[in-house]
Write a structure and sequence with these properties.
There is one protein chain. This protein is mainly alpha-helical. It is built from four helices and two strands, in the order αααββα. The protein folds into two domains: 45 residues; 46 residues, no CATH class. A hairpin with a 3-residue loop joins strand 1 and strand 2. Helix 1 crosses helix 3.
Length: 120
């Protein structure tokens, strides 16, 4: 159900809300300042911002899943070891420059927490 404004009491379509929010973004004004200038309730702008954000998030790809990884230090040759890099989608990139200096338990706990956050 769409929200109404003090100005018109007319419900917005999603397209109208997107247009108004784009105008607000382009104005450089805060939501409160833009709403005051246009005679709108700021709550309406916040509501549509949240709704469109939730809708965008619900259309994301499948949840991130982790797979077990085994690091075999014997397979790494030479004095310089490559960094350990863990990517979570395109948002998070964790790079540990010296994997031997970081306890494996800490890495496991970090990955468990990242998985919990990503899948919630």
């Amino acid at each position: 159900m769409a929200k109404t404004t003090a100005k018109s009491n007319v419900e917005w379509t999603e397209a109208e809300a997107r247009r108004v929010l784009a105008e607000r973004d382009g104005s450089g004004l805060s939501i409160w300042a833009y709403a005051a200038r246009e005679g709108l309730k700021p709550q309406r702008l916040y509501w549509w911002t949240k709704r469109l954000s939730e809708r965008a998030n619900s259309t994301m790809t499948a949840p991130v899943r982790f797979v077990p990884a085994v690091v075999n230090q014997a397979s790494v040759r030479g004095p310089e070891r490559p960094p350990l890099v863990v990517r979570v989608g395109s948002i998070v990139r964790l790079e540990i420059a010296e994997p031997g200096a970081v306890p494996a338990k800490w890495i496991a706990e970090l990955l468990t927490e990242l998985e919990r956050i990503a899948c919630s």
